[in-house]
Amino acid sequence: xxxxxxxxxxxxxxxxxxxxxxxxxxxxxxxxxxxxxxxxxxxxxxxxxxxxxxxxxxxxxxxxxxxxxxxxxxxxxxxxxxxxxxxxxxxxxxxxxxxxxxxxxxxxxxxxxxxxxxxxxxxxxxxxxxxxxxxxxxxxxxxxxxxxxxxxxxxxxxxxxxxxxxxxxxxxxxxxxxxxxxxxxxxxxxxxxxxxxxxxxxxxxxxxxxxxxxxxxxxxxxxxxxxxxxxxxxxxxxxxxxxxxxxxxxxxxxxxxxxxxxxxxxxxxxxxxxxxxxxxxxxxxxxxxxxxxxxxxxxxxxxxxxxxxxxxxxxxxxxxxxxxxxxxxxxxxxxxxxxxxxxxxxxxxxxxxxxxxxxxxxxxxxxxxxxxxxxxxxxxxxxxxxxxxxxxxxxxxxxxxxxxxxxxxxxxx
Length: 413
Ligand SMILES: Cc1cc2nc3c(=O)[nH]c(=O)nc-3n(C[C@H](O)[C@H](O)[C@H](O)COP(=O)(O)OP(=O)(O)OC[C@H]3O[C@@H](n4cnc5c(N)ncnc54)[C@H](O)[C@@H]3O)c2cc1C
Known about the structure:
FAD/NAD(P)-binding domain, seven-stranded mixed beta sheet, six-stranded mixed beta sheet, binds flavin-adenine dinucleotide
């Protein structure tokens, strides 16, 4: 399969856009990525990279680079509210590789973006245009006409085979080119902080992920040893009036009744002044594509991060769409085929993420049922239930792992 001759424009150099650019370039397509920022941004914080996403990254030749900048936690310790010992430990480490053929890792989002960006830079057939002020795309019988205003006042206009919106939760491609709706506030926010490990005073294990349940909130913490930091994400409800009002909250206010949880107390004290406030939005739209214009990643299906799958779905999207944009006779059929392959799975992951939000935030006495189920099913039972998620192969075509010899590859950096 060779994509020589096909040009694909991508809006957004995030996880979805860079993964798609790389996958397409490996098939020999010419790729132009339009990014509004002036550089790859250090935004976000930690990401869990599950085996279903890692398979794609590995097939793109990034196994070593991801491994060098991530941690493979030994497990996930699950603590019910105020528990001093974990109720259960979900075994990761070697158990993941054994079960799914790829590790479960944690890393900083900026490190993953950088790994993808560096890999893209090795391809002469990928152009990443930073500082794009605006873009437009119009689908027609022979593909798509694209215009973009670039930094410095220059502009470009060209014809392409397809235009892919990978421009995130507030996607302009979705709302303005495809007529899809705006992202919707979920009523929940993420409080994110990265702290020196020592600040947590032993509350968080240095080799594993810690999952803490609370009444109406939860937290996920894991070490980022390459940065000598620990990533904390605390999720809580927040009324829209307060979330978007003139005085948005500066730190989480947890309703922990009379007796606080030791874990949450240490975390919130340590992170005072270091929190980043992140309202959570969802995207549910039927407008995934029209003609030669389509969507991937958060632009198509931003979801609650409670199964840690948003970026993983974006990576899978890219792996499924890339070969279709090479092999299908036109972009419209590529997008239709991609949508048929992806929509059900993404919806299932979305439902699971929503369910987790419900289960993680339960209050006493309903916690008793949840905790009993978790203890009873144990680690093996937990992952057996999730085989459909982590065992999925988005890119079964081994050709994706073998760069097409276009003669246009830069020498390795
Ligand atoms: C608290 C939290 C924790 C999470 N944890 C996990 C996790 O553990 N695992 C996981 O898999 N997922 C996780 N996610 C989800 C994950 O971060 C997102 O799903 C993922 O980053 C989406 O990637 P994307 O490329 O679609 O969008 P983005 O990463 O948002 O990238 C969009 C890109 O498009 C660019 N752009 C936007 N508008 C324009 C424009 N008009 N013109 C040009 N460029 C534009 C942006 O600058 C950006 O570079 C988490 C999310 C949150 C909020």
